């Protein structure tokens, strides 16, 4: 049997593309990734015919099994997909180009296990999962979401929502619920850089061991950025060819320059709309390095700053900025949030631990240039060839470097508008539907292939024993 090596290219290209069936989207474009990040390629791929018959969706409640059309399970915080394929072994191993597979057009039955809740938790990942659910529903899939019950509405774009504290108390890591299913597993991982901040130092190594156990048991791992993929590779969490990037996306209609509002600018600048206005949107947590903004504002006496969002660090920040021209709006949503983004002059992101940075995408989509730390997943949004064109990156913690890029934007309206327009044009390329379609069709098909391969390897010793004790009868044709 021909050996097939299937690996990834971190340039967000589809995971399984053979030379014979390479769509335009499979072309490699790795210039935006650091040279230290390894590149992977596909060799010897052969097409595979996927047939899903008798699939099932299993839940832990009373070991109930639901039979129906093609289904899979997703879990988040760490997001996982799972689906049972009862088709016989023996099909050709190889690549599935999801967009060309006719089965992808069929409706699927999907369960999302999410902790914390994407409807109540203050975090950038909230928009990712809400848009993911919305796009799945628009594709005709039946979606059920199981999450913590606080702030959970009855339904969301027609998806059924279930709040269950007991479920999440019994299984603190939702991945375990999927491990009990006989189906492929795709966890989403994004928290490696927060581990040292939220645990005792002596717990870091045991936590990495748990992470390795979970992801090695999975068939594929999704990550939000090349930086996080690099962390997993450095820690040898899982095989390099089982890591896939979840494409970035932004709602370019919701976050649009048209929402610029004089009334909102008055509110954000404390009735001083003519002063330069810095905006920061996001969760107010200690891990976001927001104390850097205090040092920044000490050097910019004419500027004003507005914090949009809430979090455990807010009270301390308000004390830190007491007597300074700073406004804390708390949580904003809907059109108010769109107006807040579009009504500022510059968006500053000091966080050095962002897994991707959706607020940066939303600010740029709103036509606002960004000055952000060159760390985490931010360089995936503002690659080297776009630095200085759509936005600026500065060396993490370097106040002078940040000021050298921020001051010209605050005081030069023409530069600010030119860069904001370029940022907007760049963000129009990213669409939530395309990102969702890639996971639903391509990434999951890749997981099916790995799952089949693993299942065949596990069954091989039993098949040999069966062949030894129950040999096939010899047929004499004389």
What is the secondary structure topology, with strand pairs?
Layout: E1 56-58, E2 65-67, E3 71-76, E4 109-114, H1 125-138, E5 142-147, E6 155-156, E7 159-163, H2 165-170, H3 175-179, H4 195-198, H5 204-217, E8 221-223, H6 226-234, E9 243-245, H7 262-268, E10 277-281, H8 291-298, E11 304-308, H9 314-320, E12 326-330, H10 334-342, E13 346-349, H11 358-365, E14 370-373, H12 378-381, E15 392-394, H13 399-411, H14 413-427, H15 432-469
Parallel strand pairs: 3-4, 4-5, 5-7, 8-9, 10-11, 10-13, 11-12, 13-14, 14-15
Antiparallel strand pairs: 1-2, 6-7
Strand order within the widest beta sheet? 12-11-10-13-14-15
- What's the helical proportion of residues? 25-40%
Q: Structural class, from helix and strand content?
A: alpha/beta
> What is the overall shape?
elongated
The CATH class of the largest domain is identified as Alpha Beta
The biggest beta sheet reads: 6 strands, parallel
The beta-strand count equals 15
* C-alpha-based Rg, rounded: 24 Å
Descriptive account of the structure:
GO terms for molecular function: glycosyltransferase activity. Keywords: Glycosyltransferase, Transferase. The structure is a single chain. The chain is α/β, with parallel strands linked by helices. It folds into 2 domains: 24-249 and 433-464, Rossmann fold, CATH 3.40.50; 257-427, Rossmann fold, CATH 3.40.50. The chain contains 15 helices and 15 strands. It has helices at 125-138, 165-170, 175-179, 195-198, 204-217, 226-234, 262-268, 291-298, 314-320, 334-342, 358-365, 378-381, 399-411, 413-427, 432-469; strands at 56-58, 65-67, 71-76, 109-114, 142-147, 155-156, 159-163, 221-223, 243-245, 277-281, 304-308, 326-330, 346-349, 370-373, 392-394. Strands 12-11-10-13-14-15 form a 6-stranded parallel β-sheet, with helices on both faces. Strands 3-4-5-7-6 form a 5-stranded mixed β-sheet, with helices on one face. α1 (125-138) packs across α15 and α11 packs across α14. The longest helix has 38 residues, at 432-469. The protein is elongated and about 95 Å long. Residues 1-73 and 75-100 have low confidence and may be disordered.
